[in-house]
Design a protein that fits this description.
With 64 residues, this protein is mainly α. It has one helix and no strands. 92% of the residues lie in helices and 0% in strands. The longest helix has 59 residues.
């Protein structure tokens, strides 16, 4: 009986450690996602700016 309880206690401790690891990994991934979303938005803004500048240059070209 004592052996069974000790084994169960060990398994519970392992499970808790596993959950803590997953929680830490999840937190790190959330931070990475936030950073990538910010970088994506900056790239979208740059593309929009480049498109606007290109349109402005095309408007300045003489028509054939």
């Amino acid at each position: 009986m004592k052996g069974d309880l000790a084994a169960l206690e060990k398994k519970v401790e392992q499970f808790l450690a596993f959950c803590q690891g997953l929680r830490a990994e999840n937190l790190a991934l959330r931070g990475r996602v936030a950073g990538l979303e910010e970088e994506r938005q900056q790239l979208v803004d740059k593309i929009a700016t480049a498109g606007n500048r290109l349109e402005a240059l095309m408007d300045r070209l003489p028509e054939e």
